[in-house]
Specification:
The chain is of the alpha+beta class and 334 residues long. The protein contains 8 helices and 16 strands. It has a 7-stranded mixed beta sheet, with helices on one face. α5 packs antiparallel against α6 and α7 packs across α8. The radius of gyration is 21 Å and the shape is globular. The structure holds zinc ion. Zinc ion (ZN) binds next to loops.
Length: 334
């Protein structure tokens, strides 16, 4: 599939780098299969700064951040693209140390209690070596990073929505609501550089994970189209390197999703199947620890097909992660 991924990115952990006239970046050392090399935290401006997605609550990260600022500099605005802990967990500490106000679309959407039986596991696909390696990585992970996922505690001081402008000292942002990865995801367009901070909506190293019910593929596709209509020159995603030729890149993201849908339909054309069966061949080239997330993305596709009446499920209570999915035959014309 034709996405020009760029996985060449060597972050300088613990060092604030000037990456454009108005943008500095500090990458937190929280690499994992979801965050790639870690959370890229951006500082915008000079003197009075905006910080975009403060990152994880690691002391070493916060020390690097505050020690790296100039003597007359302070953080006045905390901008949040969306409420996942690798982006927001350090918000309380930074707020407390700076008094800065937080800006975001809103709290995380409802997180319904999930049915403990409605889970897909791919553990049996892991080889003994992989299991050992994954376990070792997990055991070496600091406790602060072990609870990654939705941040249900974040509530923005200032609620911002599509079309709003956030202005500071020498910089200004357009707020672009881009639901899909989460329902409250926004991108921030730095007007002075025609640069868009895309959070996890568009990333250069991988596709975005869509986990229903808060994640929604239909919204996601509309949010990609929304970016196509803009004329940004460069994207700065939270994870990995910046993206040049962003419109082309977004188009390849859209094409990729459409081809994933075609793959799912093709998989079901051989007969009814579960997500557990569909994922491994489809994501054979992806880290197996991401397969559970991939299962969610496949689920989001199937929910879309279900709503269109193109697939059905065997469960009386409606579609679930563990359902067996059936491709509906299209009535052929007389
Ligand atoms: Zn995220």
């Amino acid at each position: 599939m034709g996405i020009a991924f760029n996985r060449k990115f060597e972050p300088m952990y613990g060092q604030i780098e000037q990456v454009s006239p108005l943008i500095r970046r500090l990458v937190a050392e929280n690499p994992n299969p979801f965050t790639f090399t870690g959370t890229g935290v951006y500082l915008i401006g000079r003197g009075e700064l905006a910080i975009i997605d403060p990152g994880p609550p690691l002391d070493v990260h916060l020390d690097a951040l505050f020690e790296g600022l100039g003597p007359d500099e302070r953080i006045t605005h905390i901008l949040v693209t969306h409420t996942h802990t690798d982006h927001t967990a350090a918000v309380p500490q930074i707020k407390e140390r700076t008094g800065a106000k937080t800006y975001g679309f809103g709290p995380h959407g409802p997180v319904p209690e999930s049915d403990p039986l409605d889970k897909v596991s791919f553990d049996e696909y892991f080889t003994a070596e992989e299991r050992e390696e994954f376990e070792k990585v997990w055991n070496d992970t600091p406790d602060e990073l072990k609870r990654e996922g939705p941040d249900v505690h974040f509530v923005p001081d200032i609620v911002v929505g599509d079309g709003d402008v956030i202005e500071g000292n020498g910089w200004s942002f357009d707020v672009v609501h881009t639901p899909g990865h989460t329902s409250n995801h926004v991108c921030f367009g730095l007007r002075e550089e025609r640069a868009l901070f895309t959070g996890d909506h568009v990333m250069g190293w991988a596709t975005s994970v869509i986990s229903p019910p808060d994640g929604d593929l239909f919204d996601y596709m509309a949010s990609l189209e929304k970016l196509l209509a803009r004329d940004d020159q460069r994207y700065w995603p939270t994870h990995g390197a910046p993206i040049d030729s962003p419109q082309e890149f977004v188009q390849s993201y859209i094409d990729h999703r459409l081809s994933r849908e075609a793959q799912i339909v093709a998989a079901l054309s051989d007969g009814p199947a579960t997500i557990k069966k569909i994922v491994p061949p489809m994501y054979a080239d992806v880290d197996k620890r991401l397969w559970r997330a991939a299962a969610n993305s496949v689920y989001s596709h199937l929910l879309g097909l279900y709503r269109q009446g193109r697939v059905s499920v065997d469960d009386a209570q409606g579609p679930m992660l563990t359902s067996t999915w059936v491709l509906n035959s299209v009535a052929s014309p007389e």
